[in-house]
Design goal:
- The protein has 244 residues and is an alpha+beta fold.
- It has one domain: Phosphatase 2c, domain 1, CATH 3.60.40.10.
- Helix content is 32%, strand content 27%.
- The chain has a five-stranded antiparallel β-sheet with strand order 1-12-9-6-7, covered by helices on one side. Strands 2-3-4-5-8 form a five-stranded antiparallel β-sheet, with helices on one face.
- The protein is globular.
- The relative contact order is 0.20.
Length: 244
């Protein structure tokens, strides 16, 4: 069974006012065998080249996932290799620009799913919600660190210590997002999803004419921007025929 997916990353109103670029980035791919690959990154607002780090991390992670899955590794190995590749790319990119790696600081969240098994991991505060026939499941919840507003960034994390999550039951859809949407989407601090937020999004994603431009318009609408001024990334994926 194949996936229908769309995603958008938009600049937050706070960054617009400050003359800053969008520091979020995402990439989504589907393998020939129907495995969905998702990567999204959120650059640190204090890092001068955060948008460069986020884009490099997301792009490199997807490339590494594609190669590892093609070579037949189990999904935890695939995820670990992708995080390692993304981290190395961020560090190398910083060196090439004569900067410290912290100037490209970003979070990174990765998801792999064939609809019957889902695996993922996160460095930082990305979140992932799964839609199942029995309701919504908080698959990955924000990592806030020990202190308020503390976030772990890709360039200085020990990849070998990362823990990965696996959900081994059929799912209907995936919603993934950066921390700018958390106040709207989750009941904090427990990280439980607001059903009223996600139900129309999954319905929208299944619509024949759903487009990334419409998703972008939603993220830039007053309903959202009145609640958050951060950069926003939202990724929606549904199994084709999964609502039958």
């Amino acid at each position: 069974m194949n996936w229908k997916f769309l995603g958008a990353s938009v600049i937050g109103t706070g960054h617009e006012r400050a003359g800053m670029p969008c520091q979020d980035a995402h990439r989504i791919e589907q393998t020939d065998s129907g495995v969905l690959l998702v990567a999204f990154a959120d650059g640190a607002g204090s890092a001068s080249l955060a948008e460069v780090g986020a884009l490099a991390a997301a792009e490199t992670a997807i490339e590494a996932l594609q190669m590892a899955i093609r070579d037949g590794f189990d999904w935890e190995v695939c995820l670990r290799r992708a995080f390692e590749a993304a981290q190395s790319k961020v560090v190398c990119e910083a060196e090439s620009q004569g900067e410290e790696a912290r100037e490209l600081a970003c979070t990174l969240t990765l998801i792999v799913s064939d609809g019957t098994k889902t695996a993922g991991g996160s460095v930082g505060d990305g979140a992932v919600i799964l839609e199942t026939k029995d309701g919504l499941v908080s698959f990955l919840v924000p990592d806030r660190g020990e202190y308020l507003n503390e976030t772990t960034f890709l360039h200085d994390v020990e990849i070998e210590n990362l823990a990965f999550q696996t959900y081994e039951m059929p799912i209907l859809g995936i919603a993934a997002f950066t921390d700018g949407l958390q106040m709207l989407a989750l009941k904090l601090p427990e990280g439980e999803p607001h059903a009223g937020f996600f139900a129309p999004l999954f319905e929208f994603a299944r619509h024949e004419n759903a487009s990334e431009e419409e998703l972008r318009q939603f993220l830039q609408s007053p309903r959202v921007t009145h609640r958050t001024d951060d950069d926003l990334t939202l990724i929606l994926a549904v199994r084709e025929g999964g609502n039958s």
